Amino acid sequence: VIIYSCSAHHAATNSGQFELGAFVPNMPAAMRQPPPETKEPLSEGEFLAALPAMNTTVVTLGVLWVLRNEPFDMRPLGCYPEQHFTEETPRRLIGAFQRRLAAISRRIRRRNAGLALPYTYLDPAHIENSVAI
Questions:
Q1: What is the phi/psi pair of residue 128, to 5°?
Q2: 46-65: per-residue pLDDT in tens?
Q3: Where are the domains positioned within the chain?
């Protein structure tokens, strides 16, 4: 559960923030009006008046842009440059884990090959080994 929460779950819930939030009405970071108290539809003017101010929008988009970019020192899930384990059993298990991740990545890339909008957030090659930003 811990590895999943700090890797795949984090990637699934955070990697697409810019794509979702860049269109401000889709995911506004702030609202200038209180939420409606009834289920009555809002007019376009009421809706637009509730959206955040331009400066708030620009700051939000800047933060989302920074968060979406892969860090220069990104280590994909299963990549362990430091050799902490010298015993045969852990090394064998790490190798099996890395081979399984590579197979999953190939399968995801094949499925995405013909898609106009590929879903890459859960490709192990794009999932970081930790949630550090």
A1: -75, 155
A2: 999 999 999 999 999 999 99
A3: 1-69, 75-133
